[in-house]
Amino acid sequence: MSPIERVRARAAARELLGVGKFADAVAIRTAWRRAAFKAHPDRNDGEGTSFAQAKAAYELLITDAGFVADSNAIAEPVAPAETPQSEPSTPAKPKVVTRLLPLTPEAIDACNAVLLAERAAPTPGTGAAVAPAEHVPLAVAVHGRSLTYTFATPLVSGLNRVALPTAVLQDMTMATFEIVTFRSPTSGAGDVLAPDNIRSRQFPGARSVRLRFRAP
Question: What is this structure's pTM?
Answer without folding.
Answer: 0.53
